[in-house]
Amino acid sequence: MLKNNSQGYGLVSIIIHWLSAITVFTLFGLGLYLSELSYYDELYRVIPHWHKSLGVLLALAVIFRIVWMVSHPSPKPHGSPAMANVAKAAHGVLYLALFSLFITGYLISTADGRAIDVFDWFSVPGFGSFIENQEDLAGQIHELIAYIIMGLAALHALAALKHHFLDRDNTLSRMLKPVRHSNEN
Amino acid sequence: MKKLLSALLFTAFLSPLAQAADYQVDVKGAHAFINFKISHLGYSWLTGRFNEFDGEFTFDDQNPNGAKIMLDIDPASVDTNHAERDKHIRSKDFLNVKKFPKAKFESTHITHEGDDKFKVIGNLTMHGVTKKIIIDANKVGEGKDPWGGYRAGFAGTTKIKMEDFGIKNVLGPASAEIQFDLHIEGIRK
Predict the structure, then answer these.
(1) Band of residue A79 on the pLDDT scale cut at 50, 70, 90
(2) N or C terminus: fewer CB in 10 A for chain B?
(3) Chain A residues near residue B87 by CB distance under 8 angstroms
């Protein structure tokens, strides 16, 4: 139920997948909104705070997800080996984009050595700037990759739909319904 | 002949004391500061600096009205000790340093107001706009330093309205003006 096997995903992977997706879209929305806020908006300080807090939590979740992924079997991909490699590469790029966002986001807020407050639970310490005007360069890269990851997510969703409606395999369904007994291989 | 010679020698000895001299602003030793302060919501003062700048000035004790100063300032070097705020200040909401990467002050004339006080009148170019400003300055001191150089130092204040330089003031009425505190030490060239 919880863990994956070669046939499908367990509940842990499924929940993390969809929670991450929702969080990524929420973060994008918050990011768009915060870049338009003016000094006197009531939410001027609140929205960036949520954006950073959620970002840190997502980073932790993705790290856990990767550890989980490498320590558990993955269901076999459907389709030709070539397509399977393309899919694997695309997923890799998604992870790369996510980590680039986490790192660049972190480098913006900690450029002055300040910590990042995650809601009012804990703080992530900062190490200061490594280059001049770090917050500006990191900010530009952060914004660019945010748009790229939205495009990748759209492609990712389209690919899942293609598997479901065109190939008629269970690629999408197995990310919705967990395996019954994880011990079966 | 003897009189002429001694007169010449006399002036030669005196001349180092009163010369029109060119000074390089001591940026290397960081003995110059461009500080500013702006009101935060009308509740407190927010201070900051421009960390990167360069300049030179000409000054003559005997002819203070012939003095000149020129400063090149890098607006991207704004520093209010807060990375997110500094990032915002550099953005197109305020200084727009991508579009306007340089700022400059060039004096047009300097008047001696008595004692060590001066009025430095000149053009400030910032955010792509050039406007006349007046800096109230005073000479702090001058003289030899222990390392073979000769230095002269000044302090000055001025106020500008950000809207005069094309920057929309979205910070509230108390923050319309920015006060500058300049401290400049130059080493005679």
Answers:
(1) confident
(2) N
(3) 108, 111, 135-136, 139
How many angstroms separate the CA of residue A168 from the nearest CA in chain B?
49
Which residue among A40, A48, A112 places its CB closest to the CB of B83?
A: A112
The complex's ipTM?
0.80
Q: Which residue of A has its CA nearest to B84?
A: A109
Mean pLDDT of A106-128: 95
Distance separating the N- and C-terminal Cα atoms of chain B: 34
Say if B81 is an interface residue toward chain A (CB within 8 Å). Answer: yes
- Per domain, the residue ranges of chain A are 11-175
The structural domain count of chain B equals 1
User: How much is the pLDDT for B63?
Assistant: 85
**What is the rounded distance in angstroms from the CA atom of residue B139 to the CA atom of residue A142?**
47
Cα dihedral value A16, A17, A20, A26, nearest 10: -130
Q: Using N-to-C axis directions, what is the helix angle for A46-70 and A81-109, rounded to 10°?
A: 140
The architecture of the domain spanning A11-175 is: Up-down Bundle (1.20)
Question: Of the candidates B86, B170, B172, which has its C-beta nearest A135's C-beta?
Answer: B86
